[in-house]
Amino acid sequence: MASYLYYPGKEGRLVPFEKGNILGYGRLPSRIPNRAPEQAAYLGGLIDGDGSIWHSRRSQRGGWYISVGNNDPELISACLRFSQAGSVGATIKRDKVHMIWMLGRQEEVLDFVHQILPYSAKAHDLIRRLESDIPRP
C-alpha cells in the first residue's frame, strides 16, 4: 500500500512511510496495531481535545511526542489499550489525580499519527511541520 507520508532516508532521499521503516534506519518496529476507523477517530478526538503533539530537543535523541492528560482514568486507559504502547504517569493536583499517557518512540509516534491523520487537526499540523523540514530534490 503506497503511503502519502515521506521521510528523509539514510542517503538523504525521500522514502515512503512504512510500518517499522522510519527514517530508513534499522530500529525496532512499531508496536502500534492497525485500528478500526472508529477507534482511530476516537483517539484522534482525544488527541485534539485533551492531547498534545510536540517536539523536544532537550533529550539526547530529541524527537516527537504525543500525550493525553486527563483526570478520568478510563480515557487514559483507552489510550493505552488502543495503542498498546506508551507509558502512563500521574501527578496529584489539588487533591485530584491527573494522569498522562505519553508515546515517545519515533516509529510509534509516526505510526500512530498516520492512523489518526484523517481524524485529527493536530496530526495534520505535525505532518505539515515534517514536510516543511524535508529537503526537496
Task: Give a nutshell description of this structure.
The chain has 137 residues and is α+β, with helices and mostly antiparallel strands.
What does this protein look like?
The chain is α+β, with helices and mostly antiparallel strands and 137 residues long. The chain has a single domain (35-133), classed as Roll (Endonuclease I-creI), CATH 3.10.28. It is 36% helix and 26% strand. The protein contains 4 helices and 6 strands. It has a 4-stranded antiparallel beta sheet. The chain has a two-stranded antiparallel ribbon with strand order 1-2. The protein is globular and about 45 Å long.
* Helix-strand category: alpha+beta
What CATH architecture label applies? Roll
Taking strands numbered 1, 2, ... along the chain, how are they ordered across the largest sheet?
3-4-6-5
Helical percentage:
25-40%
The percentage of residues in β strands lies in 25-35%
CATH fold descriptor: Endonuclease I-creI
Q: What gap, in angstroms, lies between the N and C termini?
A: 23 Å
- State the helix count: 4
How big is the Rg? 15 Å
Which CATH C-level class is it?
A: Alpha Beta
Largest sheet: 4 strands, antiparallel
